[in-house]
Amino acid sequence: MWGIELQRQGEISLSRQIYQTLRDYIIDGQIKQGEALPSTRELAKQLTVSRNTVSEAYEMLIAEGFVISRQGSPTRVAEGLSLEKTPFVERTKETLPHPQSFRVDFKTGQPDLRYFPRYLWQQLFVKTFEKMPLNQLGYSGPEGLLPLREEIAAWLFRSKGLAVSSQDIFITAGATQALHLLADLLSTDGREMLIEDPCHIGMLRALQGKGYSMRPVPVDALGLQTDYLEGKGAGAIYVTPSHQFPLGGILPATRRAELIRFARDNNLYIVEDDYDSEFRYCGASVSPLYAMDPQRVIYVGTFSKILFPALRIGYVVLPLKLHSQWRYLRIHADVQNPPFEQAALAEYLHTRKLDRHVQQMRRLYGQRRQVLLQTLEETFVKVWHPWGDAAGLHLALEFPGLRFDSEFAQRAQNYGIRVTPVEYHSICKGKHLDKLLIGYGHLEPDEIRKGILLLHDFMKENS
Protein backbone atom coordinates (compact mmCIF):
# COMPACT_ATOMS: atom_id res chain seq x y z
CA MET A 1 0.00 0.00 0.00
CA TRP A 2 2.71 2.48 0.95
CA GLY A 3 5.17 1.39 -1.73
CA ILE A 4 8.03 0.90 0.69
CA GLU A 5 10.61 -1.55 -0.62
CA LEU A 6 13.16 -2.65 1.92
CA GLN A 7 16.66 -3.86 1.17
CA ARG A 8 16.94 -6.43 3.91
CA GLN A 9 20.58 -7.24 3.19
CA GLY A 10 21.64 -3.61 2.78
CA GLU A 11 23.96 -1.59 5.01
CA ILE A 12 21.25 0.93 5.99
CA SER A 13 19.03 -0.20 8.87
CA LEU A 14 15.41 -1.09 8.08
CA SER A 15 14.12 1.68 10.34
CA ARG A 16 16.15 4.30 8.47
CA GLN A 17 14.97 2.95 5.11
CA ILE A 18 11.35 3.35 6.26
CA TYR A 19 12.08 6.84 7.56
CA GLN A 20 13.79 7.93 4.33
CA THR A 21 11.00 6.62 2.12
CA LEU A 22 8.25 8.33 4.14
CA ARG A 23 10.28 11.54 4.34
CA ASP A 24 10.71 11.61 0.57
CA TYR A 25 6.98 10.97 0.04
CA ILE A 26 6.16 13.91 2.31
CA ILE A 27 8.60 16.28 0.55
CA ASP A 28 7.36 15.20 -2.91
CA GLY A 29 3.74 15.73 -1.84
CA GLN A 30 2.75 12.09 -2.30
CA ILE A 31 1.63 12.17 1.31
CA LYS A 32 -0.32 15.39 1.88
CA GLN A 33 -0.07 17.68 4.89
CA GLY A 34 -2.45 16.62 7.63
CA GLU A 35 -2.68 13.09 6.25
CA ALA A 36 -2.46 10.33 8.85
CA LEU A 37 0.18 7.67 8.73
CA PRO A 38 -0.78 4.09 9.50
CA SER A 39 -0.25 2.89 13.04
CA THR A 40 3.08 1.36 13.85
CA ARG A 41 1.41 -2.03 14.32
CA GLU A 42 -0.34 -1.85 10.93
CA LEU A 43 2.74 -0.73 8.96
CA ALA A 44 4.92 -3.31 10.71
CA LYS A 45 2.50 -6.01 9.61
CA GLN A 46 2.46 -4.75 6.00
CA LEU A 47 6.26 -4.66 5.83
CA THR A 48 6.79 -7.83 7.86
CA VAL A 49 9.14 -6.12 10.27
CA SER A 50 9.01 -5.68 14.02
CA ARG A 51 6.85 -2.93 15.49
CA ASN A 52 9.94 -1.50 17.18
CA THR A 53 11.53 -0.98 13.75
CA VAL A 54 8.58 1.11 12.55
CA SER A 55 8.41 2.97 15.88
CA GLU A 56 12.06 3.92 15.48
CA ALA A 57 11.38 5.27 11.97
CA TYR A 58 8.40 7.30 13.23
CA GLU A 59 10.51 8.69 16.08
CA MET A 60 13.02 9.99 13.51
CA LEU A 61 10.21 11.68 11.57
CA ILE A 62 8.81 13.22 14.76
CA ALA A 63 12.22 14.41 15.97
CA GLU A 64 12.86 16.23 12.68
CA GLY A 65 9.37 17.73 12.52
CA PHE A 66 8.06 15.87 9.47
CA VAL A 67 5.11 14.46 11.39
CA ILE A 68 3.21 15.36 14.53
CA SER A 69 2.18 12.81 17.12
CA ARG A 70 -0.35 13.40 19.89
CA GLN A 71 -1.52 11.00 22.58
CA GLY A 72 -4.63 9.16 21.42
CA SER A 73 -4.45 10.55 17.86
CA PRO A 74 -2.88 9.17 14.68
CA THR A 75 0.50 10.45 13.57
CA ARG A 76 -0.09 13.14 10.92
CA VAL A 77 2.10 14.93 8.37
CA ALA A 78 3.11 18.45 9.39
CA GLU A 79 2.21 21.45 7.27
CA GLY A 80 4.33 23.27 4.69
CA LEU A 81 6.75 20.47 3.81
CA SER A 82 5.90 19.80 0.16
CA LEU A 83 8.62 21.01 -2.24
CA GLU A 84 8.68 21.13 -6.02
CA LYS A 85 11.06 18.69 -7.56
CA THR A 86 14.27 20.18 -8.86
CA PRO A 87 15.48 19.10 -12.31
CA PHE A 88 17.57 15.96 -12.20
CA VAL A 89 21.23 16.57 -12.91
CA GLU A 90 22.95 13.56 -14.36
CA ARG A 91 26.27 12.95 -12.71
CA THR A 92 29.06 12.09 -15.06
CA LYS A 93 31.73 9.70 -13.96
CA GLU A 94 34.54 11.62 -12.31
CA THR A 95 37.87 11.10 -13.97
CA LEU A 96 40.97 12.34 -12.23
CA PRO A 97 43.54 13.89 -14.55
CA HIS A 98 46.60 11.75 -15.04
CA PRO A 99 49.82 13.51 -14.08
CA GLN A 100 51.60 14.53 -17.23
CA SER A 101 54.82 12.67 -17.76
CA PHE A 102 57.87 14.50 -19.07
CA ARG A 103 61.09 13.38 -20.67
CA VAL A 104 62.69 15.84 -18.25
CA ASP A 105 61.05 17.78 -15.44
CA PHE A 106 62.83 20.95 -14.34
CA LYS A 107 60.11 21.78 -11.81
CA THR A 108 61.24 24.29 -9.18
CA GLY A 109 61.06 23.86 -5.41
CA GLN A 110 61.01 20.07 -5.46
CA PRO A 111 63.26 18.26 -2.95
CA ASP A 112 64.46 14.74 -3.68
CA LEU A 113 62.02 12.62 -1.70
CA ARG A 114 63.99 9.44 -2.37
CA TYR A 115 66.48 10.46 0.31
CA PHE A 116 63.98 11.19 3.05
CA PRO A 117 64.45 8.67 5.93
CA ARG A 118 60.93 7.28 5.92
CA TYR A 119 61.58 4.39 8.30
CA LEU A 120 63.19 6.69 10.88
CA TRP A 121 60.29 9.12 10.58
CA GLN A 122 57.83 6.27 11.05
CA GLN A 123 59.67 5.18 14.20
CA LEU A 124 59.63 8.71 15.61
CA PHE A 125 55.95 9.07 14.76
CA VAL A 126 55.00 5.88 16.61
CA LYS A 127 57.32 6.65 19.55
CA THR A 128 56.00 10.17 20.10
CA PHE A 129 52.37 9.12 19.65
CA GLU A 130 52.75 6.44 22.33
CA LYS A 131 54.21 8.99 24.76
CA MET A 132 51.79 11.79 23.87
CA PRO A 133 49.86 13.09 26.92
CA LEU A 134 46.14 12.57 26.70
CA ASN A 135 45.42 16.30 26.79
CA GLN A 136 47.30 16.75 23.51
CA LEU A 137 44.61 14.71 21.77
CA GLY A 138 42.22 17.56 22.50
CA TYR A 139 42.50 21.21 21.50
CA SER A 140 46.03 22.29 22.32
CA GLY A 141 45.71 25.90 21.15
CA PRO A 142 46.66 28.02 18.12
CA GLU A 143 50.32 28.41 19.08
CA GLY A 144 51.31 24.81 18.33
CA LEU A 145 52.96 22.23 20.60
CA LEU A 146 55.40 23.87 23.00
CA PRO A 147 58.13 21.20 22.56
CA LEU A 148 58.16 21.85 18.81
CA ARG A 149 58.27 25.63 19.26
CA GLU A 150 61.20 25.23 21.68
CA GLU A 151 63.05 22.97 19.24
CA ILE A 152 62.45 25.39 16.34
CA ALA A 153 63.88 28.21 18.45
CA ALA A 154 66.97 26.07 19.13
CA TRP A 155 67.19 25.09 15.44
CA LEU A 156 67.07 28.72 14.30
CA PHE A 157 69.83 29.60 16.77
CA ARG A 158 72.26 26.87 15.74
CA SER A 159 71.53 26.97 12.00
CA LYS A 160 71.18 30.73 11.43
CA GLY A 161 72.40 32.36 14.64
CA LEU A 162 68.89 33.72 15.17
CA ALA A 163 67.93 34.18 18.83
CA VAL A 164 64.15 34.00 19.23
CA SER A 165 61.83 33.08 22.07
CA SER A 166 59.62 30.02 21.68
CA GLN A 167 56.76 32.26 22.85
CA ASP A 168 57.10 34.25 19.60
CA ILE A 169 56.86 31.13 17.40
CA PHE A 170 53.48 30.01 16.06
CA ILE A 171 53.06 26.76 14.13
CA THR A 172 51.18 26.84 10.82
CA ALA A 173 50.05 24.38 8.16
CA GLY A 174 52.85 25.45 5.85
CA ALA A 175 53.98 28.84 4.58
CA THR A 176 50.87 29.30 2.44
CA GLN A 177 48.57 29.20 5.46
CA ALA A 178 50.91 31.59 7.23
CA LEU A 179 50.49 34.09 4.38
CA HIS A 180 46.70 33.68 4.41
CA LEU A 181 46.59 34.48 8.11
CA LEU A 182 49.09 37.33 7.80
CA ALA A 183 47.03 38.86 4.99
CA ASP A 184 44.07 38.99 7.38
CA LEU A 185 46.26 40.13 10.24
CA LEU A 186 47.87 43.02 8.34
CA SER A 187 44.99 44.03 6.08
CA THR A 188 44.10 47.70 6.13
CA ASP A 189 41.25 49.13 4.07
CA GLY A 190 42.51 50.55 0.79
CA ARG A 191 46.15 49.72 1.53
CA GLU A 192 48.42 47.83 -0.84
CA MET A 193 51.00 45.16 -0.14
CA LEU A 194 54.40 45.88 -1.63
CA ILE A 195 55.78 42.73 -3.23
CA GLU A 196 58.89 41.76 -5.15
CA ASP A 197 58.55 41.54 -8.90
CA PRO A 198 59.09 38.83 -10.00
CA CYS A 199 57.88 36.74 -7.06
CA HIS A 200 56.47 33.26 -6.48
CA ILE A 201 53.18 33.22 -8.40
CA GLY A 202 51.60 30.89 -5.82
CA MET A 203 52.28 33.31 -2.98
CA LEU A 204 51.06 36.21 -5.11
CA ARG A 205 47.77 34.46 -5.78
CA ALA A 206 47.39 33.51 -2.13
CA LEU A 207 47.65 37.17 -1.12
CA GLN A 208 45.43 38.35 -3.97
CA GLY A 209 42.87 35.74 -2.95
CA LYS A 210 42.62 37.45 0.42
CA GLY A 211 41.66 40.68 -1.32
CA TYR A 212 45.01 42.44 -1.08
CA SER A 213 45.98 44.85 -3.82
CA MET A 214 49.54 44.26 -4.94
CA ARG A 215 52.12 46.93 -5.73
CA PRO A 216 55.12 45.41 -7.49
CA VAL A 217 58.64 46.56 -6.62
CA PRO A 218 61.30 45.59 -9.20
CA VAL A 219 64.07 43.13 -8.39
CA ASP A 220 67.62 43.01 -9.74
CA ALA A 221 70.48 40.56 -9.21
CA LEU A 222 70.74 41.64 -5.54
CA GLY A 223 67.05 41.41 -4.72
CA LEU A 224 64.44 44.07 -3.95
CA GLN A 225 65.41 47.49 -5.32
CA THR A 226 64.72 49.68 -2.32
CA ASP A 227 65.05 52.87 -4.42
CA TYR A 228 61.61 52.06 -5.85
CA LEU A 229 59.85 51.84 -2.48
CA GLU A 230 57.02 54.31 -2.00
CA GLY A 231 55.14 54.54 1.28
CA LYS A 232 51.93 56.27 0.23
CA GLY A 233 49.04 53.79 0.41
CA ALA A 234 51.25 50.87 1.52
CA GLY A 235 50.08 48.39 4.15
CA ALA A 236 52.83 45.75 4.34
CA ILE A 237 55.87 44.41 2.47
CA TYR A 238 56.55 40.84 1.30
CA VAL A 239 60.18 39.89 0.60
CA THR A 240 62.48 36.87 0.20
CA PRO A 241 65.80 38.49 1.23
CA SER A 242 67.86 35.36 1.95
CA HIS A 243 67.34 33.86 -1.52
CA GLN A 244 65.07 35.95 -3.70
CA PHE A 245 62.54 33.90 -5.58
CA PRO A 246 62.94 33.38 -8.45
CA LEU A 247 66.14 35.29 -9.34
CA GLY A 248 68.19 34.08 -6.37
CA GLY A 249 69.82 37.26 -5.04
CA ILE A 250 70.80 37.91 -1.41
CA LEU A 251 69.58 41.30 -0.24
CA PRO A 252 72.71 43.24 0.84
CA ALA A 253 72.98 44.90 4.25
CA THR A 254 72.56 48.44 2.87
CA ARG A 255 69.24 47.56 1.25
CA ARG A 256 68.13 45.68 4.34
CA ALA A 257 68.75 48.77 6.45
CA GLU A 258 66.90 50.93 3.92
CA LEU A 259 63.98 48.50 3.91
CA ILE A 260 63.71 48.53 7.70
CA ARG A 261 63.93 52.33 7.84
CA PHE A 262 61.19 52.51 5.22
CA ALA A 263 58.97 50.15 7.24
CA ARG A 264 59.55 52.15 10.43
CA ASP A 265 58.89 55.50 8.76
CA ASN A 266 55.63 54.23 7.27
CA ASN A 267 54.55 52.07 10.23
CA LEU A 268 54.56 48.86 8.18
CA TYR A 269 55.39 45.24 8.87
CA ILE A 270 57.80 43.30 6.66
CA VAL A 271 56.86 39.69 5.89
CA GLU A 272 60.11 37.76 5.40
CA ASP A 273 59.63 34.45 3.59
CA ASP A 274 62.67 32.23 4.17
CA TYR A 275 61.69 29.28 2.02
CA ASP A 276 64.98 27.44 1.34
CA SER A 277 68.03 29.29 2.71
CA GLU A 278 69.19 26.12 4.51
CA PHE A 279 70.56 24.91 1.17
CA ARG A 280 73.40 27.34 0.54
CA TYR A 281 76.53 25.95 -1.05
CA CYS A 282 79.06 28.75 -0.48
CA GLY A 283 79.44 29.48 3.22
CA ALA A 284 76.92 29.45 6.04
CA SER A 285 73.19 30.18 5.79
CA VAL A 286 72.30 33.83 5.34
CA SER A 287 71.19 35.59 8.51
CA PRO A 288 67.49 36.50 8.36
CA LEU A 289 66.32 40.08 8.03
CA TYR A 290 64.37 39.46 11.24
CA ALA A 291 67.64 39.75 13.22
CA MET A 292 67.87 43.45 12.35
CA ASP A 293 64.44 44.38 13.74
CA PRO A 294 62.35 41.68 15.48
CA GLN A 295 59.54 44.17 16.18
CA ARG A 296 59.11 45.19 12.55
CA VAL A 297 59.80 41.91 10.69
CA ILE A 298 57.56 38.83 10.63
CA TYR A 299 59.63 35.75 9.84
CA VAL A 300 58.00 32.86 7.92
CA GLY A 301 59.72 29.47 7.75
CA THR A 302 58.77 26.04 6.46
CA PHE A 303 59.94 22.42 6.56
CA SER A 304 58.47 21.52 3.16
CA LYS A 305 61.73 21.95 1.24
CA ILE A 306 63.90 20.49 4.02
CA LEU A 307 61.84 17.32 4.53
CA PHE A 308 58.86 16.70 2.24
CA PRO A 309 56.06 18.93 0.91
CA ALA A 310 53.25 16.79 2.33
CA LEU A 311 54.47 17.64 5.84
CA ARG A 312 52.27 20.69 6.26
CA ILE A 313 54.26 22.30 9.05
CA GLY A 314 55.57 25.83 8.86
CA TYR A 315 55.94 28.57 11.42
CA VAL A 316 55.95 32.30 11.90
CA VAL A 317 57.98 34.36 14.35
CA LEU A 318 55.73 37.23 15.38
CA PRO A 319 56.32 40.53 17.15
CA LEU A 320 54.66 40.49 20.57
CA LYS A 321 52.16 43.15 19.52
CA LEU A 322 50.55 40.75 17.02
CA HIS A 323 50.23 37.67 19.25
CA SER A 324 46.66 38.05 20.49
CA GLN A 325 45.23 38.93 17.08
CA TRP A 326 47.04 35.96 15.52
CA ARG A 327 45.56 33.63 18.14
CA TYR A 328 42.08 34.97 17.42
CA LEU A 329 42.44 34.49 13.67
CA ARG A 330 43.91 31.00 13.95
CA ILE A 331 41.24 29.82 16.37
CA HIS A 332 38.52 30.96 13.99
CA ALA A 333 40.29 29.49 10.95
CA ASP A 334 41.15 25.90 11.94
CA VAL A 335 42.29 26.12 15.59
CA GLN A 336 45.55 24.18 15.27
CA ASN A 337 47.75 21.73 13.39
CA PRO A 338 47.35 18.01 14.16
CA PRO A 339 49.67 17.21 17.08
CA PHE A 340 51.15 13.96 15.76
CA GLU A 341 53.46 15.35 13.07
CA GLN A 342 54.39 18.21 15.38
CA ALA A 343 55.52 15.79 18.08
CA ALA A 344 57.50 13.70 15.59
CA LEU A 345 59.19 16.78 14.15
CA ALA A 346 60.05 18.04 17.64
CA GLU A 347 61.81 14.74 18.35
CA TYR A 348 63.53 14.84 14.94
CA LEU A 349 64.90 18.27 15.81
CA HIS A 350 65.78 17.37 19.39
CA THR A 351 67.93 14.40 18.36
CA ARG A 352 69.74 16.56 15.75
CA LYS A 353 68.68 14.13 13.04
CA LEU A 354 67.28 17.04 11.06
CA ASP A 355 70.66 18.76 11.21
CA ARG A 356 72.35 15.69 9.77
CA HIS A 357 69.68 15.29 7.09
CA VAL A 358 70.09 18.92 6.00
CA GLN A 359 73.87 18.52 5.86
CA GLN A 360 73.52 15.40 3.72
CA MET A 361 71.04 17.03 1.36
CA ARG A 362 73.12 20.22 1.13
CA ARG A 363 76.07 18.17 -0.09
CA LEU A 364 73.87 16.25 -2.51
CA TYR A 365 72.17 19.33 -3.97
CA GLY A 366 75.51 21.16 -4.16
CA GLN A 367 76.96 18.33 -6.25
CA ARG A 368 73.94 18.38 -8.53
CA ARG A 369 74.26 22.13 -8.95
CA GLN A 370 77.85 21.65 -10.09
CA VAL A 371 76.74 19.00 -12.57
CA LEU A 372 74.12 21.40 -13.87
CA LEU A 373 76.57 24.28 -14.27
CA GLN A 374 79.19 22.08 -15.91
CA THR A 375 76.65 20.62 -18.34
CA LEU A 376 75.35 24.09 -19.21
CA GLU A 377 78.90 25.28 -19.85
CA GLU A 378 79.64 22.33 -22.11
CA THR A 379 76.32 22.49 -23.95
CA PHE A 380 75.49 26.18 -24.29
CA VAL A 381 79.09 27.48 -24.12
CA LYS A 382 78.99 31.32 -23.72
CA VAL A 383 75.37 32.16 -24.56
CA TRP A 384 74.06 32.05 -20.99
CA HIS A 385 74.90 33.13 -17.45
CA PRO A 386 73.40 32.31 -14.04
CA TRP A 387 71.63 34.71 -11.70
CA GLY A 388 71.70 34.78 -7.95
CA ASP A 389 73.56 33.13 -5.12
CA ALA A 390 74.69 29.49 -4.98
CA ALA A 391 71.68 28.33 -2.99
CA GLY A 392 68.31 26.67 -3.18
CA LEU A 393 66.90 23.98 -5.45
CA HIS A 394 66.69 25.91 -8.71
CA LEU A 395 68.85 28.08 -10.93
CA ALA A 396 67.83 31.20 -12.85
CA LEU A 397 69.50 31.38 -16.28
CA GLU A 398 69.71 34.35 -18.61
CA PHE A 399 70.01 33.77 -22.35
CA PRO A 400 70.58 37.26 -23.83
CA GLY A 401 68.55 37.86 -26.97
CA LEU A 402 66.20 34.91 -26.51
CA ARG A 403 62.54 35.03 -25.52
CA PHE A 404 60.84 32.65 -23.09
CA ASP A 405 57.10 33.20 -22.64
CA SER A 406 54.03 31.04 -22.02
CA GLU A 407 54.02 29.86 -25.64
CA PHE A 408 57.62 28.70 -25.26
CA ALA A 409 56.72 26.82 -22.07
CA GLN A 410 53.78 25.11 -23.81
CA ARG A 411 55.88 24.08 -26.81
CA ALA A 412 58.50 22.72 -24.41
CA GLN A 413 55.85 20.69 -22.60
CA ASN A 414 54.65 19.27 -25.91
CA TYR A 415 58.27 18.30 -26.56
CA GLY A 416 58.42 16.57 -23.18
CA ILE A 417 60.22 19.25 -21.14
CA ARG A 418 58.76 21.03 -18.13
CA VAL A 419 60.62 24.30 -17.68
CA THR A 420 59.40 27.59 -16.23
CA PRO A 421 60.11 31.02 -17.74
CA VAL A 422 60.78 33.75 -15.17
CA GLU A 423 58.04 35.63 -17.04
CA TYR A 424 55.53 33.23 -15.47
CA HIS A 425 56.37 34.67 -12.03
CA SER A 426 56.51 38.29 -13.19
CA ILE A 427 53.81 40.79 -12.28
CA CYS A 428 54.87 43.43 -14.79
CA LYS A 429 55.36 41.40 -17.94
CA GLY A 430 58.15 41.75 -20.46
CA LYS A 431 61.12 42.57 -18.21
CA HIS A 432 62.57 39.08 -17.78
CA LEU A 433 61.69 37.36 -21.04
CA ASP A 434 65.27 36.15 -21.53
CA LYS A 435 65.37 34.05 -18.34
CA LEU A 436 64.50 30.46 -17.51
CA LEU A 437 64.22 28.61 -14.20
CA ILE A 438 65.81 25.18 -13.93
CA GLY A 439 64.82 23.10 -10.92
CA TYR A 440 67.41 20.42 -10.23
CA GLY A 441 67.18 19.29 -6.60
CA HIS A 442 65.02 16.25 -7.40
CA LEU A 443 67.09 15.11 -10.41
CA GLU A 444 69.96 12.65 -10.46
CA PRO A 445 73.16 13.78 -12.27
CA ASP A 446 72.37 11.65 -15.34
CA GLU A 447 68.86 13.12 -15.47
CA ILE A 448 70.32 16.63 -15.32
CA ARG A 449 72.77 15.94 -18.15
CA LYS A 450 70.17 14.33 -20.38
CA GLY A 451 67.68 17.08 -19.58
CA ILE A 452 70.03 19.93 -20.49
CA LEU A 453 70.98 18.22 -23.77
CA LEU A 454 67.29 17.78 -24.53
CA LEU A 455 66.61 21.44 -23.70
CA HIS A 456 69.48 22.50 -25.96
CA ASP A 457 68.11 20.46 -28.87
CA PHE A 458 64.63 21.87 -28.34
CA MET A 459 65.87 25.47 -28.17
CA LYS A 460 67.96 24.94 -31.30
CA GLU A 461 64.95 23.58 -33.20
CA ASN A 462 62.76 26.48 -32.01
CA SER A 463 65.23 29.36 -32.36
SSE blueprint and pairings:
Layout: H1 14-28, H2 40-47, H3 51-63, E1 67-68, E2 76-77, E3 104-105, H4 118-131, H5 146-160, E4 169-172, H6 174-186, E5 192-197, H7 201-209, E6 213-220, E7 223-224, E8 234-239, H8 253-265, E9 269-274, E10 297-302, E11 314-317, H9 323-331, H10 339-350, H11 353-380, E12 385-387, E13 394-398, H12 406-415, E14 417-418, E15 420-421, E16 435-439, H13 445-461
Parallel strand pairs: 3-14, 5-6, 5-8, 8-9, 9-10
Antiparallel strand pairs: 1-2, 4-11, 6-7, 10-11, 12-13, 13-16, 15-16
Walkthrough of the structure:
The chain folds into three domains: 14-77, Winged helix-like DNA-binding domain superfamily/Winged helix DNA-binding domain (Arc Repressor Mutant, subunit A, Orthogonal Bundle), CATH 1.10.10; 104-108 and 356-461, Alpha-Beta Complex (Aspartate Aminotransferase, domain 1); 117-351, Aspartate Aminotransferase, domain 2, CATH 3.40.640.10. The model has no long low-confidence stretch (mean pLDDT 91). The chain is of the alpha/beta class. α2 crosses α3, α5 packs parallel to α10 (339-350) and α6 (174-186) packs across α7. An eight-stranded mixed β-sheet has the order 4-11-10-9-8-5-6-7, with helices on both faces. It has helices at residues 14-28, 40-47, 51-63, 118-131, 146-160, 174-186, 201-209, 253-265, 323-331, 339-350, 353-380, 406-415, 445-461; strands at 67-68, 76-77, 104-105, 169-172, 192-197, 213-220, 223-224, 234-239, 269-274, 297-302, 314-317, 385-387, 394-398, 417-418, 420-421, 435-439. The chain is built from 13 helices and 16 strands.
